[in-house]
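Before the break, one more example. Copy the sequence into your notebook; we will annotate it together after we see the structure.
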Amino acid sequence: MKIIETKQAPNPRRVRIFLAEKGITVPYEEVNLMKGALKTPVFTKLNPVQRVPVLVLDDGTAISETVAICRYFEEVKPAAPHLFGEGALGRAVVEMWQRRMELGLFFYVSQAFRHTHPAMAHLEVPQVKDWAEVCKVRAIEALGVLDAQLAGHKFVAGDAYTIADITGLVAVDFMKPARLTRPTDLKHLDRWYGEVSTRPSAKA
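Here is what the structure looks like once it is written out:
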């Protein structure tokens, strides 16, 4: 078993944080996405959409998509912490907020980065600057939604740390290379970020 990743990329970081929280150790194989490693026939056979991370099981089965990999490990090690929630309602709430963090925040931050950063020009063809500006606005709007949620909850999906917090943390951290400035009036977001960014797993 191994995880193929580019460590500097945000999605592999989400998996590393998840595994650190679960106390699971998996060997990693580093590939350089900036130098075309994801375009090779060998990698494309593992993941036809040419993205990292990819979990390769001992029998050769390849699992891609960040949340799918995390779900696999949650099933393999179902003991606490339950990062996808507990019970029907708990799991539904975590799923709801995980999707909001991924599709409403992380996606837009990533798109702003991919469509503006010079280093991404050869991978994001064409770079659409107008789309990047739209994404920046939507990412900031998502932070407002998150701040309102955190006004009444310790973590994104309630009182327990979950995968929704992992996605939110990585998204907020990725705002820096995307050249997005976090609004200064989101005090609940600031409180939450101070807590989740200092957890040991955040350094994974």
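The two ends are 19 Å apart (CA to CA). The chain has two domains: 2-76, 87-203. Try to locate both features in your own notes.
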